[in-house]
Amino acid sequence: MTTRHLLAAAVLAALAHSAAFADGLRPVVGFSLTGGGKTLLKVETEDDGEQRVSSGGLVHLFGGLEYQAPESPLSFQFNVGYHVDGIGAENGDANFSRVPVELLAFWHVDPAVRLGGGVRKATGSRFTSSGAADVGDFNMRSTVGFVLQAEYLFPGGATAFARYVDESYKSNRLVGGEVSGNHAAVGMAYRF
């Protein structure tokens, strides 16, 4: 994550504690485990196994703001995150990281369930490798992706969700120039 992204996250966190926030505006943090996409690198291990770095894996951490007007069945969420998949060993490692920015809208079906979706743009997409796994480092461009999400809201601000993301990445270093980053995820979030 770049210094600029960390600074933006710090500003959002500072604003979250400000008394100037409108009714219904709350900070949100969360994480998800993701799977899918295409294999970017496969490495054989000494024990006849293998490790993979995929364009849809593995961990997505995020924070942002959510707004829901009082008594409204709609809510809106803006997130900035860090999404990464990687492998590592004593003799080398490889990572695919990106900083997704998301704008989501939800319809509250009832007080405990909401359905929604929105758009996602993975900025700063970068593949890095070193040692025995070294195939070079390169940046990727992402398409604007789409998110579909179902969420269960627990009392007190915690939620559990399942989502599907449709996106792709482009680079002249990829076979065919483009790879799918489509993935499914399950995760948890908390609203303050």
Strand content is: over 45%
Strand order of the largest sheet: 1-4-5-6-7-10-11-14
Helical stretch count?
Answer: 1
Shape: elongated
Number of strands: 14
Element order, helices and strands?
HEEEEEEEEEEEEEE
Unreliable spans are none
What is the structural class? mainly beta
Largest sheet: 8 strands, antiparallel, barrel
State the helical fraction: under 10%
Please report the distance between the alpha carbons of the first and last residues: 24 Å
Mean pLDDT: 90
CA-based gyration radius: 18 Å
Summarize the structure.
This protein has one helix spanning about 5-15, and strands at about 25-35, 40-45, 50-55, 60-65, 75-90, 90-110, 115-130, 140, 140, 145-155, 160-165, 170, 180, 185-190. By secondary structure, it is mainly β. A hairpin with a 4-residue loop joins strand 10 (about 145-155) and strand 11.
Give your account of this protein's structure.
With 192 residues, the chain is mostly beta strands. It is 7% helix and 65% strand. It is built from one helix and 14 strands. An eight-stranded antiparallel beta barrel has the order 1-4-5-6-7-10-11-14. It has a three-stranded antiparallel sheet with strand order 9-12-13, with no helix packed on it. A hairpin with a 6-residue loop joins strand 7 and strand 8. The protein is elongated, with a radius of gyration of 18 Å. The relative contact order is 0.20. The mean pLDDT is 90.
